[in-house]
Amino acid sequence: MKATENIEGLLSLSSAALCTRDARQGFQKALRYNDQLRAFLEAPYHLDVRLPDLINPLIAHLRKDWETQHVSKPWLYSILYSLIDVRGLRPLTRFFPNEVMDLERCVFLLKNWYGQELVVTSLDEIHTNDRPLTLETPKFNTVYDEQGVSADAKHRVTFVLFVALSVLVGVPFDIASLDSTGNLVDTVAALVLSSFDDGTNTHTISTEVLARLATRPDLRETFLPKLLMHLNGILSEYCTRSRKPSDLGIESKTGEFDITNRGKISACLMCISYCTRFSDREHLLHLSTILEDPMEMLGVLLKDPNRDIRRLCIVLSTRLSTVYLPQRNFLWRQRVLQQRSRLELKDEYLRELDGFSIPDEFDYYVTSLLTGLQDDDTGIRLASAKGFALVVGRLPFLFANELVEELLHLFSPAESPETWHGAGMALGEIIRCGLLMPERISQVSKVVAEALRFERQKSGVIVRDTACFIVWSLSRAYHTCQELMLEASTIAANILVVALFDREVNIRRAAAAAFQELAGRVREPYVPSAIKAAALVDYYALGSKKYSYQTISLQIAELDQQYLDAIVTALHTRYVIHLDGSIRTLAAQTLASTLLVDQDVDTRSERAKVVFSLLLSLLKNTDPEEDWMSYCGYLLAISNCVREFCNDGPMLGTLVVSLLRDLWDSQESLFKQGKRFKNNADGSFNIICATSTLISNIAQCPLEYAVQIVSSDEIYRAYYEYLLSVLEYSILVTIDSMSIAMFDTENTNDVILALRALAALYSSMIKEQPSGGYKLSNTFFKDCINSAIVNSTLATLAALGLTPEQFLVEEAYYIQKRCYDELKRTMAPSEYVTRLYVLSTIEATFLSLKHLSEDDVELTSFILSACLTDFGSDQRGDVGSLVRLKTFRVLRLLLSTNPVTLPFFSHLYKNALVMFLGSRIDIMRIDAVISLYEDLKGPIDWSDVDLTLVDSYMCSYEREKETLAQMRDEAHKQRREDFTEIDKHMYDLHQRELRDDDPLTEDSTINILALTPHLSYTALNILAVVFLPSEGYGSIAANALVYVFGVMSETVSTYMMRLILELTGKRSISVLVKHVLMGPNSDKFLASIKQAIAKGVEPLLTALNSAIGTWAPGDQYKFSILDSALSLLDFLYAYDVHESDDEIIFERLSVILKLCRVLTSPKLLKYIVGIFASGGAIGVRNGFNKARDRCIRALILMMGHRVTRVRQIAAEALLELLLIQSWLPEDSTEDAVLKLTACDWHMLDQDELEYSRALLCQCLSIDPPPAKKSSK
């Protein structure tokens, strides 16, 4: 329906363009037509239904222009050009005129339009006297403005006329009988050759016109040889000049062969190619020459930097080489196509050479195709591949076999990826066309295996993709061939490895398609478990790299022993040492799991032993500085094998223990190699992570094996000291690579996880006391942590929290004292990482304690209080927010997990929660409100505040959690019902949502923050309604509301304004009941809110006084508080919210006036002016004379401020006060207004300011402010 409407719009535009005579309107309609026509680019065939209606009126006008020999409406040609551009030339040429009389008319109109007088005697002598034709087009408005519209319109007219001429030159009559002037042919040639230099795409159609003309039966004997000679002359001169590098890029005297004008050379090659295409083969064979000196000419042109020239050389070489080859199929090809069996060299194949001869030029054309296979451009390689396959199919057996042999030689490790890709595409085309001798399938199988393993950074993908194409072609063309059946299992195993483990999803899917073709055509028993394996490598399932590695690969390995061997070999030889870190990690995990797939225990153990021993040997012989990727891969593979083998059973567990004991001799060097390299940050970090993962997996083995591996305190110390030496580096790298918005307050990395695993291993040894266990003293851990290898406060404090439980309990005071001393030493913003790990250490310590001393409480209270008030910031932003959020979560974890902390830290946690409800950061408010809601059912006592309203506010949150859980359960149920009759290994394969982040997996997280974004506003409501009126938390809540009022977010700022107005009774209740499900108790709920509102204003104003009165210069956090307080006070005064005591207002205004002497921020000064203006109005309305006078004097004082903008707004504020809330007699008010408006206050100098303010004060009957001391 939409396509029909668009076509109707096109018809109406073309009709309007036909009717209009105004050029401006015509070109506007042409531009609109082109824009609407672009909607059909993806499906241009939709135009075919109304194509006659679209083009016939335009063609009719074209014929009228031929009759009048004048282009009357050039915009119609633009419309016709757009149609050709979108729909293509072939479907439209049948509508163009083909009458004999139109030929000369079209040529003459084209000659006139081209703007040249052609004096043509013969093709060898064409002289053009340029007389440029200027097409005047109107200037469009801004909607339809296009640069160069005149030149573009002229080019489009020329192109359309050449399209019409391409049809007319094919008239079936002798040209001489139609030529009234005697030089029609030479005129067409001159027009076409002139189009070679115009810099547009006109030559793409004009060359076809010239080639069709030259290859006519009445002209090919006379005109075609001259044309080829002329074109070869141009090419020869270009090649001669191109051999001199100094000439390239430097404009020649004629300018004809400048490097920027290679379009002419492309047009010459295209014309020769068209002539070859349109000519009869027999006639071409009788020509003396088609391309002069092809060896030298093609050798130069194929090295040209212009892509079009090289591509046309390949096309021309293909066409010229096929000219010399017979059209029939030789006997060998017929037998390959019919039998697909091995061909033996027989006499009949030798007899094919009888009468077969080719000229010497043929070798040059084939060499050009081989050169094109190695080109840097993909399109040229593909064209060369198709041409090469075409040539092979036209040759006798011996010559074709020789070319295939030459092609196979290109698959060399020394060749570039582009050469591999081009040769692979050519081989694939040869196989697809059935031109490969069956006895070469074994060679092709080896080539495919090498291509599938081809891996070079940023360029190996095209080679592996080509290998998949070769396998696909083999499967389609040779599935009945015995040679392929013998190689099918090997090819299947190799292609399956790529389908499972390749980094690129498109290659995985291409390999899967090739395997499915092979399995479906060759079938079992030649392809093991063909049907099941083909079903497993599903298109959508392979979209998830993690699922492909960890699930599908194990299912494939279970199907057949050959698949298992191929997968294991590929993993430990290729993918664990891959360039991509994620591939190395997944491959290491998959290798360990795959080694345990075999059901035969002896076979599984033997394979595991061989692979594990090989990995250990490779690790020992790899230098991490030269090949850190392989080193990391071997470490990851060994660590995952350790974990899987030890959990599998005693046989493999004992194997791991014995082999790792043999490794101990080199472990000291291993740990030294794992340290940082100066010039390789990536290598250093990855090696540290891999080594830490190995230690972690060893420590997490079952205790009986872990104790045997870490069999002495010497080994334990080596592990422990290594992790301590790289701890700080790992922490800083992890945090530097993470944005504040995505920061994880758990602060974990591989080194920290390994230290925790070692601590847990030692704690288990102490508790269970297995044979071989040993005991370490607290001094041992202190010495390790305080040794020179740590050499960092950050690492020391972090390491204290990663010690065994025994150390944490016995040395609790020592740990807390170290943390306390460090926090007292510095609270600089740059040390926020240290504070984060201090909190982690405090968390680990207090989770282990069973009782607390007074010293414990005192030290920890200081630490937690200091971190809760960390508002530091640096170049990364508000880094203190990370510390505050971490502190809050630590407090909550301690209170909910360790009951002994409840009596000591509950008040600190509750105060922090109230403060967080008014945070400027959304995530902190949401975290606080969810914690409060969950605390209603937890151990924390909130009896000192009424929390009955919290349930009403959080009901929508609870409801959406339930809804999400129901949705997930229903989706799981539906998924199970859809696959009840399918085997387990088929489950989930055809679901698009199977990705790494599948929303239905059990380990996925419910994103409550995304589902309930209103929780950040609910937190503000609870803060205002629940905590602001309470006695114990009112001041904290008020301070939090003051602080959050200065938030930069426009939406939150607007919400806060509405909330404050509702709190002060200046606005009906709306946002305070937002997202609350009103039920039977709605009246009671509203009554509770109104009661809270009545009590909330006083704490808020008190908090404002405190924020303004306690500000001190130099404190950024205090400055933010002052900013928020002044902004809120300005807002409240503007809405007439204030105390009812003149003295209180006067004192507050006096404090604010003192701030003017030290504040320099224009923003804050603007707030202050607004406060004085609103305060003066309050004083006038309520009879607060002291407050009124204070405001008037303050405004007059501000009118003398050094900031001109402040003076101006102070004068405007005083004027508004006089006009609206005047307290003076009418005459005095009028006089004061005149004095006030007579001056441009922002432009006065100091003396003028003093004089003007004195006059104004005289009118107001007040003393003028003291004069400023002269700078002299």
UniProtKB/TrEMBL annotation:
Q: Name one GO biological process term.
A: microtubule cytoskeleton organization
For this UniProt entry, the molecular function terms from Gene Ontology, in alphabetical order, are: beta-tubulin binding; GTPase activator activity
Which ranges carry the Tubulin-folding cofactor D ARM repeats domain? 347-522
Per the UniProt record, one Pfam family is ARM_TBCD
Q: Report the superkingdom from the record.
A: Eukaryota
**Protein name as annotated:** Tubulin specific chaperone D
Which species is this record about? Giardia muris
Q: What is the lineage of its organism?
A: Eukaryota, Metamonada, Diplomonadida, Hexamitidae, Giardiinae
